[in-house]
Amino acid sequence: MAESKLEKVAQQIRKNILENLNLWSSKESQLKFQSDVPSAQVSDELFNLWDDDYQPESEIHKMAFNEKERQALEKFNTLLNIISEKTPQNLPNIEEFILTKEWLELNELAKEVVIEMNK
Questions:
Q1: Residue 102 CB partners (closer than 8 Å, separation 6+)
Q2: Gyration radius from the chain CA atoms
Q3: Which of 23, 25, 73, 97 could, after both became Cys, cross-link 110 (CB 3.0–4.6 A)?
């Protein structure tokens, strides 16, 4: 019984991370998110959502992803952390952030990771 609960949590973590990667990989989805939730600071939300769900040391995370997928996620996480360190504490709104080199790097890598995860 407990194992099936763990499996459900692992499936939810996987779903959340894949949704986050899909959001990172789509300028249109990010702009729609901002339009749908005008009070949100989507630039910040992108980083926060990732930080909330990406817990690579947890057993749940290891259940949710195979080794190859974990390597792809780690690559994205590493770039995200590097860029997070380089960007200002208060990120520009999403309409401005999508024009930056940093956003483009994360967007391109997110697209690659999404492809890898769907293999």
A1: 83, 86, 87
A2: 15
A3: 25
pLDDT tops 80 at residue 41: yes
| CA 64/CA 91 separation, integer angstroms | 31
The pLDDT, as a whole number, for residue 119 is 82
C-alpha–C-alpha distance, residues 46 and 50, integer Å: 6
Record the pTM.
0.91
First to last CA, the chain: 30
**On the CB side of 89, how many CA atoms lie within 13 Å of its CA?**
0
Tokens of 47: 């980083």
